[in-house]
Amino acid sequence: QVQLVESGGGLVQAGDSLRLSCAVSGHTDSVGFVAWFRQAPGNEREFVSAITWIGASTYDAEFVEDRFTISKDSPANTVYLQMRTLKPEDTAVYYCAAGRSYGSDTGKLLRAGVGVNYWGKGTQVTVSS
């Protein structure tokens, strides 16, 4: 089993920045990637960004553009999502997710919403206008 614990959410104003953290523990040798998803009220959960556990290949949803950056601190088993120029439409519960390695198919699968084996409980991000 892999445990994922998110932190860093909160209430911010439009244009502000926020950094989310995901602490990864348990059987980390089975982890191929760690990703962020989000779910806004009334919407389906959607993929945001992912990073491979070995190496540092990254995958982003189209809406990320250059506003969000995913990174990791391997010794600390922590993955971050740095969010900049936040907009009210970024308001959502942000979930950390993990799964096995899918190699070059990782981005394609995650954008399709499949491939996740483990989920965190989520952290709320609210962006006021």
The helix/strand series, from N terminus to C terminus, equals EEEEEEEEEHEE
Task: Describe the main β-sheet briefly.
Answer: 7 strands, mixed
Mean pLDDT, to the nearest integer, reads: 95
User: How many β-strands, per DSSP?
Assistant: 11
Structural category: mainly beta
Give the distance, in angstroms, between the N- and C-terminal Cα atoms.
Answer: 40 Å
3D shape: globular
Radius of gyration computed on alpha carbons: 14 Å
Report helical residue fraction: under 10%
Low-confidence stretches: none
Number of helices: 1
Tell me what portion of residues adopts beta-strand conformation. over 45%
Question: Describe it for me?
Answer:
- Helices cover 5% and strands 50% of the residues.
- It is mostly beta strands and 129 residues long.
- The strands form 2 sheets. Strands 2, 4, 5, 6, 9, 10 and 11 form a 7-stranded mixed β-sheet that branches. A 4-stranded antiparallel β-sheet has the order 1-3-8-7, with no helix packed on it.
- It has one helix at 106-111, and strands spanning 2-7, 10-13, 18-26, 33-39, 46-52, 58-60, 68-73, 78-83, 92-99, 118-119, 123-128.
- The chain is built from 1 helix and 11 strands.
- A hairpin with a 4-residue loop joins strand 7 and strand 8 (78-83).
Task: Give a short synopsis of this structure.
The protein is mostly beta strands and 129 residues long. 5% of the residues lie in helices and 50% in strands.
What labels describe this entry?
mainly beta, 11 strands, 7-stranded mixed sheet, 129 residues, 50% strand, globular
